[in-house]
Amino acid sequence: MVPLSFAGHDFIALPQAALFWPSRRALLLADLHFEKASWFARLGQMLPPYDSAATLDAVEALVAATGAREVWCLGDSFHDRGGAARLPADVRARIAALTQAVDWTWVTGNHDAGLDQEMGGRIVVEAQVDGVILRHEADPTESRPEVSGHFHPKLRLSLRGRNVSRRCFVRGPGKLVMPAFGALTGGLDAGHDAIRKAVGARAEALVPVSGRLLRFPLDA
Q1: CA-wise closest residue to 99 among 118, 76, 74
Q2: Nearest 5°: CA angle at 119, between 123 and 129?
Q3: N or C of the chain: less Cβ packing under 10 Å?
Q4: Per-residue DSSP letters for 134-157?
Q5: Phi, psi (deg, nearest 5) at residue 122
Q6: What CA–CA distance (Å, rounded) separates 174 from 160?
Q7: What span, in angstroms and rounded, lies between the C-alpha atoms of 93 and 132?
Q8: Which of 30, 35, 213, 214 is nearest to 138 (CA)?
Q9: Cβ(104)–Cβ(94) under 8 Å?
Q10: What gap in Å lies between CA 190 and CA 176, rounded to an integer?
Q11: 3-state SS of the chain: helix, strand, coil percent to 5?
Q12: Digits of tens for pLDDT over the chain (220 positions)?
């Protein structure tokens, strides 16, 4: 767990690509993409159908480890509109139990706009929590502090002849973009123009490693 300050609040950046808000005992996750493998299978690309269970295992472990009382999923929790209907029965039951055990909020994203109440929890387009806007995709015109997902940022470096890729947070003066949490999610280079445009000037990639928060400026 690594301290991360943003918008006057103290957060904890977790190496599992999540954010914990101690004062609220809130766990923030982005881009779970449940049932991505089954979506590809329908297109003829057969992938092991265990991504939803693996992602949920990780969510349950973090809720237990942090003692979270709130969970905020910042959009694209399902890979497509039909993802919830394709969930295996045991995974669906586990999600239902988890959404009853904690104060759970689904923030809808571009992939899961059709999310319905069958999953339990509360469904919102965005939320303002203690002065911080929580939404799926960063709004460049938003003047209030904002935490979002959508871009799946990854920091890619070449170190000693090896290419290294790590999920990362991207922070600007008033915006924080979270990495994708899902077990079967790709990533966009943290320095990509789309991310830099969304976050604004003085952006930096943040990677929690071994109790430290490594910072990499993206404006160079």
Answers
A1: 118
A2: 30
A3: C
A4: E-SS--TT--S-EEE-SS-EEEEE
A5: -110, 145
A6: 34
A7: 31
A8: 30
A9: no
A10: 12
A11: 25, 35, 45
A12: 799 999 999 999 999 999 999 999 999 999 999 988 776 556 666 666 678 999 999 999 999 999 999 999 999 999 888 888 888 999 999 999 999 999 999 999 887 776 777 789 999 999 999 999 999 999 999 999 999 999 999 998 876 777 778 999 999 999 999 999 998 788 999 999 999 999 998 999 999 998 899 999 997 5
Q: Which amino acid is at 21?
A: W
SS3 13: strand
Which residue from 159, 143, 139 is spatially nearest to 151, judged by alpha carbons?
139
Q: Give me the sign of the Cα torsion angle 133, 137, 140, 141.
A: negative
Strands 103-107 and 122-124, how do they pair? parallel
Instruction: Count CB atoms within 10 A of the CB of residue 129.
Output: 16
Walk across the sheet containing 212-217 and list its strands. Answer: 127-129, 132-134, 146-148, 175-177, 169-171, 204-209, 212-217
Q: Which amino acid is at 118?
A: E
| Alpha carbon distance 156, 207 (integer Å) | 11
User: Of the candidates 101, 139, 138, which has an alpha carbon nearest to the alpha carbon of residue 120?
Assistant: 101
- Nearest-angstrom CA–CA distance, 50 and 97: 19
Rounded CA-CA distance 38/182 in Å is 14
**Number of helices and strands (H, E) in the chain?**
5, 17
H/E element, 165: strand 162-167
User: Identity (one letter) of the amino acid at 130?
Assistant: D
